[in-house]
Specification:
The chain is mainly alpha-helical and 84 residues long. The protein is built from 4 helices and 3 strands; from the N terminus they run E-H-H-E-E-H-H. The longest helix is centred in the C-terminal third of the chain and has 16 residues.
Amino acid sequence: MPTDLLQIGPASKSAGVSTQTLQYYIMVGLLEPTQVTSTGRRLFDAKAIEKIKLIKSLNASGYPLRAIRELFIDQERSRKGTLP
């Protein structure tokens, strides 16, 4: 495993959230692991850690997770040039 990728426990600790919170973010589509190993371990890079911190901050500021997910979807569409 490359040293710049963290498993879910260390990734959640680095981002300041519980492993359950990180698993929930994945389940509701807010975040995808950077990589999944052949044994199913989810790995996260520094960019993913920053995204987790952003989700946590936005949610703490009063934004519902659904709105945060929609924001990320809109950003991705804009980046790809596929706005409706």
